[in-house]
């Protein structure tokens, strides 16, 4: 699975961070599951996330896709689960994965391909699986999995409960995870225009860390973002599963903002 030295080292660091995080969550109050009305330990909802093999390869642009919550993943390691699912190379039917793969391909190619020129998502994923080399990370603001029958709708109450339970003022686990991943580019999924607690978002992403905004109106925003001593690119887009065009809402705006490629 993980064969490169830095990947192995960083994977170990990430697991240690998750262990500390889980130790805190184990002390928190049970959570009522809406489908059956029963209470379950908060830790039962927790799922790990992180990066995929090849992420820390020196020739990569490290891309962190930053979402809201996992679905149907309670108690699981999303990285291991996703790697198993990748073996099926069935991304074409998933708007979430299709868009992530298109964006990863376009960014790693420095924006030189138009949307019409890029391979289909299954082909992109097949090549990644074959090489065991992905070059991106997946992270959610909330580690509580939304396993409800209506899990296709974000559970902002559960997301905000996780942020509260994480005691970010005492230790900013989310910021630590982002710093550990050392991204060159962060692509977030409509975090600020949602019902996520703005106070928590300000703790994780202080307004003063953003500068130089550029926009594709009503579609995407790009900032320079101060991450420790590094200034990186930070994009905020629609949620990766939103209805609409892969080309118009995701690929073309991102390539334009990052590489000044034209958007027709």
Describe the structure.
It contains nine helices and nine strands. The longest helix is centred in the first third of the chain and has 21 residues, at 5-25. The strands form two sheets. It has a seven-stranded mixed beta sheet, sandwiched between helices. The protein has a two-stranded antiparallel ribbon with strand order 1-2. It is globular and about 50 Å long. The relative contact order is 0.16. The model has no long low-confidence stretch (mean pLDDT 95). It has 264 residues and is α/β, with parallel strands linked by helices. It is 38% helix and 17% strand.
Radius of gyration: 18 Å
SSE string, helices as H and strands as E: HEEHEEHHHEHHEHEEEH
Report the average pLDDT across residues.
95
- Strand residues, percent: 15-25%
Helix content: 25-40%
Shape: globular
The structure class reads alpha/beta
Number of strands: 9
Described by strand count, sense and barrel closure, the largest sheet is:
7 strands, mixed
Task: Report the span from N to C terminus.
Answer: 40 Å
How many DSSP H or I helices?
9
Q: Reading side by side through the largest sheet, how are the strands ordered?
A: 3-5-4-6-9-8-7
Unreliable stretches covering 5 or more consecutive residues: none
């Amino acid at each position: 699975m993980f064969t490169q030295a830095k990947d192995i080292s960083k994977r170990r660091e990430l697991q240690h961070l998750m262990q500390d995080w889980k130790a805190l969550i184990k002390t928190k109050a049970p959570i009522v599951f809406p489908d059956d009305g029963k209470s379950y330990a908060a830790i039962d909802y927790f799922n790990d996330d992180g990066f995929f093999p090849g992420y820390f390869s020196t020739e990569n642009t490290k891309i962190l896709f930053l979402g809201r919550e996992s679905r149907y993943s309670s108690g699981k390691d999303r990285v291991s689960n996703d790697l198993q699912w990748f073996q099926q190379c069935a991304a074409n039917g998933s708007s979430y994965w299709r868009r992530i793969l298109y964006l990863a391909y376009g960014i790693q190619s420095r924006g030189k391909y138009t949307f019409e020129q890029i391979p289909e998502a299954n082909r992109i994923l097949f090549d990644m699986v074959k090489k065991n080399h992905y070059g991106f990370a997946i992270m959610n603001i909330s580690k509580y999995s939304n396993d409800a029958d209506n899990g296709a709708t974000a559970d902002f109450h559960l997301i905000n409960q996780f942020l509260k339970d994480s005691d970010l003022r005492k230790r900013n686990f989310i910021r630590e995870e982002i710093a550990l991943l050392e991204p060159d580019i962060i692509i977030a999924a409509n975090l600020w225009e949602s019902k996520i607690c703005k106070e928590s978002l300000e703790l994780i992403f202080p307004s003063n860390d953003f500068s130089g905004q550029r926009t594709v109106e009503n579609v995407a925003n790009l900032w320079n973002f101060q991450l420790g001593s590094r200034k990186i690119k930070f994009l905020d887009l629609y949620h990766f599963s939103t209805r609409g065009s892969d080309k118009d809402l995701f690929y073309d705006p991102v390539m334009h903002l990052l590489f000044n490629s034209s958007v027709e």
